[in-house]
Structures are given as C-alpha cells and as structure tokens.
Amino acid sequence: MAGSKFAYVRNFELPDPLLPGTFMVLRLDGHAFHRLSAEHDFVKPNDERALQLMDHAARDVMNEFKDIVLAFGESDEYSFLFRRSSNVYNRRQAKILTTVASLFTSSYVYHWQQYLPNTRLKYPPSFDARLVLYPSAKEVRDYFAWRQADTHINNLYNTIFWALVLQGGETTTQAHETLKGTVSKDKHEMLFSRFSINYNLLPARFRKGSILVREPIPSETEAHADPGMVLPDVSAVEPEKKPRVKTTVVLVHCDIIGDEFWAAREYLLAD
Amino acid sequence: MAGSKFAYVRNFELPDPLLPGTFMVLRLDGHAFHRLSAEHDFVKPNDERALQLMDHAARDVMNEFKDIVLAFGESDEYSFLFRRSSNVYNRRQAKILTTVASLFTSSYVYHWQQYLPNTRLKYPPSFDARLVLYPSAKEVRDYFAWRQADTHINNLYNTIFWALVLQGGETTTQAHETLKGTVSKDKHEMLFSRFSINYNLLPARFRKGSILVREPIPSETEAHADPGMVLPDVSAVEPEKKPRVKTTVVLVHCDIIGDEFWAAREYLLAD
Amino acid sequence: MAGSKFAYVRNFELPDPLLPGTFMVLRLDGHAFHRLSAEHDFVKPNDERALQLMDHAARDVMNEFKDIVLAFGESDEYSFLFRRSSNVYNRRQAKILTTVASLFTSSYVYHWQQYLPNTRLKYPPSFDARLVLYPSAKEVRDYFAWRQADTHINNLYNTIFWALVLQGGETTTQAHETLKGTVSKDKHEMLFSRFSINYNLLPARFRKGSILVREPIPSETEAHADPGMVLPDVSAVEPEKKPRVKTTVVLVHCDIIGDEFWAAREYLLAD
Amino acid sequence: MAGSKFAYVRNFELPDPLLPGTFMVLRLDGHAFHRLSAEHDFVKPNDERALQLMDHAARDVMNEFKDIVLAFGESDEYSFLFRRSSNVYNRRQAKILTTVASLFTSSYVYHWQQYLPNTRLKYPPSFDARLVLYPSAKEVRDYFAWRQADTHINNLYNTIFWALVLQGGETTTQAHETLKGTVSKDKHEMLFSRFSINYNLLPARFRKGSILVREPIPSETEAHADPGMVLPDVSAVEPEKKPRVKTTVVLVHCDIIGDEFWAAREYLLAD
Asked: What Gene3D superfamilies would the database entry show (chains A, B, C, D) (predicted)?
C-alpha cells in the first residue's frame, strides 16, 4: 500500500478514555457572544428567541445522544449530564467533546433563521466545551445548583441593570455605579419601587434557566417516542436484559436546587 | 454569594495542557457523511462544490487561528498544523479541540447555501476531531504524506468504481467485484481503456487534495493582509522582538509528499 | 542567575492531579519475585517470614501516609486504599506513586535481615506500582474482594501443587498435569485424602492474606497512638473542626469479601 | 472462577502511554534528606561517601535499563535520560516511574553499609520521582545544563557557607547573613582570602556533579561488557537489523554545559 510507510504516524495517537463509573458533565460556552449579541441586536436583558434557539440545539444533541439524561441552559452556555454508566464512544474524551460541540453548533446555525427570522446571521458563531467528571450524585446535584444559582444572580443583576439603562435613562457606566454594593434584596426593591417590576413574576425561563430532562413514556404512547434511556429496573426478572424504555425530552423552567425535582426523577442519578 | 457553597464543583475541572515544543495536528472528520452525501445527492466520485465548502470552512478556521500554518483536506476530513511554538489557549487541549471543531462546523453550515445553492441542507451535519502531537518535523511531513497518499488511493479507487457504475452500467456490488485484487496500474489502464479517462489529467483537487498554506506577504502589499505568523528571523538584530509578518492563506493542490513543497517553505516547520 | 536561561525546561513538567472525590487504590507488585524467591530459598508454598516482611513494609507506608486507611497484601503484592477525600501531595499522581513505591521498597530491604536473619539478600529487589481511581464504595469493596478471591485461588492451587511436589514426589511438570482440570472441591479432597491436610485449618494468613486496617483508639489510650485519621463525625457541633482522632494500624487475616468486616468499620468508605 | 464477578474492577485501570519520539527524563529526589543527612552526620558541605552511594544506585538503574544513555547526579537527586526511541515497558508512565524509583531506592539501602560502614542507617530513606518529556535534543541539553548550573550555584554557596561555619566560627544564621547579596565572584574571593581555598581546585565531583554515560565498547573487549545500546548505524547495509553494541557505563565529572561532551557522543541524542 502506497501509504503504509507513513502509517506509523498513527502510533502518536494516544488513548484518552474517561474514568468509568463517573458522571460526565459537558459544558458548552459561546465564544465571544458579547459581540454576537451586540451585532445581532439581541433583546436586553434576555432575548427569548436566542434562548429558544439554544434550547433547540440542546434538544438536538439529546436526541442524538440518548445517554444524556439532563441538560441545563442559561445565556450562552449549556451543560449536559450523561448517565453514570454511559459507554458512549467508549468514553473517549476528544470524540465525545468534539462531536457534541460540533452538533450543537451545527444545530444553532441551522435553526437560527427559524428563531430570528428577521435577523440575518452575519458570521459563523462558535462554542467551546469542556468535560468534567463527577464521582457521586451529590456533586452532580451541586454542579447543577451552581449553574442555576449563577443564572439567578446574573439575571437579577441584568434585569435591574437594563431597567436602569433602558427605562431609567442611565448610561451603562451609571447603572453599574448605581448597583455597586447592592445585595439581592436591594435589587428586588429597586426593581419594584422604580420600575414596578415584581422580579418573581418575570418569566421562569429567565429566572430559572432551561432544563431539558429525559423522561420515560408510558407504554401506550410509545409509538411516538424516541427509543432511548435504559432505566434501572429494580423489579426486573431478567437482570441482564433491561427493557429499553421509550423516552422523550421535556423542557421545563423549574427549581433544580431543592430536592423536589430530583426526588421525582431518581433515575437521573441512579445509573 | 448565593452560589458559593456549590462552587467547589469547579475543583473537579482538571488541567489538560499539551506538551510544549511539539507540533499539534488537529484532524476533523465528518460524522456520518456517507448519509449526508447520499441525502444531498453529492456528485460521484467527487463533488467539487462540497469540497470547496470544506476548503472555505478550513480557511475560516485559519483566519481565526493565526498559529495554524498549514491545512490539508480531502473528502470529509481536514487536518490542521499549528506551528511548534504555538501557545494558543495556553495549549489547553479541550479548548483548542472544541473551538476549532465548532468553528469549522459553523462555517460549513453557514456557507452551505453559497456552494450548493440548489440543495437545501436537510439537517445539521457534524464533525468530530482529534489532536495528535508530533515531536519533530520529520513526523509532521510523514503525517501529511500519509494523508495525501490516502487521498490518492481513495480517489483512484472511487474514480474507477463510479465509472464502472455510472458509465459501465455495473451495480455497486459488481464494481467492487471487478476491482477486487487490482493494483494501481490495473486501475489506471482500466480507466483509460474502458472509459478513455487519463487519471493524471483529472483535476488536481481530486488527486492531491486541498492544501491551505499560510504565506508571508511582501511588505508593499501588507495593507490587504491578515496579520499573523511570527516568522523565525535569523538575521534579526533584536532577537526578542521578531517582526510580525503579514500573512495570507493560499489554496493549492500540489504534491506535499516530496521535498519541493517543504523546501520552498522552511518556515512551516521551523518554529 | 547562572541557570536562569535554562530554567524554561521546567515548562515541560505538566500537572498530573487525580480526580478529587474518588478512592485512590495503589497496588505494588514485586518485580521478578519468582527469581527472588528462588535465589533466597523461600519456603513453598508460603514463606511466612517473607510475608511478614511485606506486612512490615506496608505498615511503614501506612505510618507515613495517614490517609491510607486499609491495605491488603498477598504473595509479592500489596494494595493501599486512600480515604476518598485525601488531598495527599495535592493528589499529584507521580508524587504519590513514586513516594509510596520507594518507601515500601526501602523498608523491605531495610528490614530483610530482621525477618530472614540467616539469608543474605543477594541483590536489591524492586517493585512497580500503579494507581487506580474508584468512584464509589461498591467498587472499592469489589476491588478488595477481587484481590482476596485471587489469594484464595492461588493459595489453594499452590498448596496442593507443592504438596504433590514436596510430599508426593511429583515433578513440577507432573504436578501441573495432575491438577489440570480440577476444580476447588477436587483440590480440597486431594489435599485431605492424599496428604491429610484440612485446607481450612491452614494459617489464615495464607488463606486470607494480610489486612492492615487503620482503627481509631479510644481516647484514654490516645497517648500511645499515632495521630492520624480524620473520622467523619456526624454529631460534631462545629462541622469545620473535626476532631483529629488517634489511630493505630491493626493486622488481621479475616474475610473481607462479606459484609461483616465493612459493617464494623463504616468510616473506611465514608469519607 | 471465584473472582470473576469482581474482575470488572480492572476496567478502571486506564492506559498511560507517553508520547513516542520524545526523550524521557526521569528525575529522582531524596525525600526529607535534610533530616537524613543530619541524623547520619553527613560531612558538610559534601559527603563524598553519600555521593558515591548515589552514583552506585544510579549505575544499578542503568545496568537494568539499557535504554538509559545518560544520568546526572548532584546532592540527593539524580536525572536519567532514556534514548528517544525507547519503548521500555511500552512507554507506560507509572510502570517506568515506579520501577526506576523502587530500584534506585533499593540499591541505595542495599549498598549503604558499603559506603558508610561506620554509620548505621537509622530508618528507611525514600525518594520521589517525576518524568518529563522533551521533544528535541536542544531541550535535553538545556535540561542537563540547568541541573549542572544548579550544582555549581549550590556547591559554591555551600562551600563558603560551611567554611564560614566550620572554620570561621560563624553561626549558620551569621553565615547566611554574611553571604546575603554576594555574587559568584565575591564568594570565590572570600573563599580564597579568608580560607585559602581555590574553588576551582576542589574535587570535580563536587563542582560538576556526577555524569554516568553509556559508552560503546570496542569489539575486542566485548566479552566483558553489558549488552545494551542499539547505536544508530548510518553505514549499516541492513537498516532493519542494527547490530547490538556492547556498552559500558562510565562515571565522569566533567562539564556538560558546553559542546565538547556532546560532540564526542552524538549517539546520546541521535536516536
């Protein structure tokens, strides 16, 4: 074979398997999205269309990767949780990272027009990604709590900041100055007293972020569902042959810091 | 801070720096491009429009990453060479891999319409990527020789294969059978005697692949060029302050297995 | 500084931290111990003196590394379990691996004379080591069960094998032949019927291996103990300041496959 | 098999191959050798016996690992260079690191008595080790230059420091104070004017460190040599079958910062 004398270069490709038995969390971040949102006139403080586009791209990723059981999105970032026992691509790190980052990006560009029909995409946007391993369920819950707490903090700040600018007539510099040293309670009050905004009545999407969760489908509706998740089945008679449960991906905007969300979905962290 | 009690989860993010002083080669591969080319009626054996789209996406990557000095593309894959001393993103592996894979994909989807104006893209295509380190110039040359030899082998096979099918009326199964056991010389002769095709006169793009090479621009034309490459400058009086040379990315379809290409561009492997 | 222009070579030292929140298990194996045991006339099938020397070296390691809570030894190998939250050497892999391997080896050579007073050590013996991460308590238990099951299998085989050779007059080749295809029950019976050996009455050290376990010392005897383990303390009023409990390292030769051992020492896998 | 249901724990052992085509440099460092030298009354500023013991242990390592072509020792540290194409243990990092660290330590303890016959070793000493990859010959040379420059700086300081203490009657605190701010030239002069010591006439071992270099043996003396190094043989008629050259390990105390040492031994960095 003509190429065989060069094929030794493949020996430099080193294996990169991720530790089994751990939860993989992959987080995507928009690259230079300050510029992207400025150049495409994203609505401030939140552009619902752009957030929906992110959700769409994330859903496309989950439809392709059945081992992703949960995703959380806010602003220009999205985190994906693979179930603990996932053996996707034999847990090869670069393969997983790049395929997810590529597919998400592809879907984002592909569906742009659908969500922002009157805004031409001026140039190709991109994302980076990292993959973190968590050994236990506790750390996974704390990871998602960390991201949702971040959503809350950022959104509260941005909401009052842009109210000061867009409704209050302050410059962005003045608005930063106005908010310096304020705590959460101050911001709530300022929003209400100066702008008649009750923060807690704002759309849950902005306050809580987007949660895409894979849920099993009762068997009578199976026909319409994606095949997917292997649910841990304690009562199974044949432990070797777990029934492959039809699943669907549901979008919610609820609290994931407390116990309720997780208690209702123990399978997320079970296996 | 509300999120601070969860912030410990960041401790699970481990560093992933790549060994300094080595050449990074990043190779992208299309994910399920057999299906993509079938569903979008790519011309066989080569669809020039689809190849030009790949080249465009690769060029966008090189315009963003000035440390990439060379790229080689064939079919649905593209390889990028970073100069040896590159410190892009502090040589963090996941960051480099995902940003390049994402940007390439983004550009591919973004420019699809421009190259295949009459073919609606039916779904978001994706790529995976891997990154390999090569310690010396010899291995880098052999890597690119390996890919170009592969281009030659595949293209010769595909050219005669599709001639047998499209012009010779064979089924794909028959064509595979016809070619079983043939060597390169047989294929050349079969192409010429049965289909009057002189393989060596086929477009160089198909036979040699696409080479995107970063080249310095003579100073009088600097104004139109991208700033970029730091060329090794042996004669520089101040060794600490190398002049930043304006560069441009040139597309060629030439031999890169022999010495000529490299001898004319010693800077590619110098630094 | 004279050396400063060379100091850049330190940049090639890459970080190698191990994932937090996982159990580190470090396993040492004797290098070429077939030869070592042959050249120093180790008693067959088990040389108690050599096993005690291994135990001594392992204990020295545990006295130095307070985060090791359990060790298991058989033949020429020893496994060490670090508590899950250990931050020894900031979890740097090479540092942990080499320091433990070096100290164990050093102690082995240092104390040789004490355990084999009439056998001069003919040359320096060595060990290799590997480090494996386990995310959960279940896997840690299964790891130690795997090693103890291995001890059982090997020891049963070696016991009957050497009985055939030393008492039965078979050559080693004949003995291997005699044992081919026999299962556990056959070996037990052969031992009893031909050599009047009741396997279950053989020393527990040979049948179960050596378990070194770190145990807390009741406070009245604290003065004689090594300070060490930080025990998880559910009732602590000040969660930030766990009392440092005095511990001691105890040698036992008991079953660690079943639940009893672990149920009596929940702290081993707690933290 | 009794243990088979636990054997899955082996899946957590991940591969750790080192990049091919790079020079591996392994550096050992004494663990807490300040205490070791104090408790065993090492001669100040240099204890020739202890240094010879280090050299002996390093030589034992080189006799075992034929791919180590060079070693450099000073004080309580030793660096080993593997030839670039070494495939020892399939370049598995943990295996190489721990075996070398263990063997060095073993030899150190084993031969202690021989070099310090009147000093009983009070406890088992230990070493740690790290492994660094260098892509090119230049970096390897600079690595060894870095260590030898360090030897010079430390030894000059220690020589005058201990002269001030042992001959000059200063306390260690006073001696540090006396030397504060002095440059190399000052120290040379102080040594000569106050203690009549011509630094350049001190033993080369102290000033230059210990270099153990693998050298080929002319064929007529082959019988007495260790088989070892595969020398790159440009004139070989059969390139696939390089003659295995007998080698020996030679101890020298010469300059390795300049070109002379390396120019006389091009094979060290050739392959």
From this structure: 3.30.70.3000
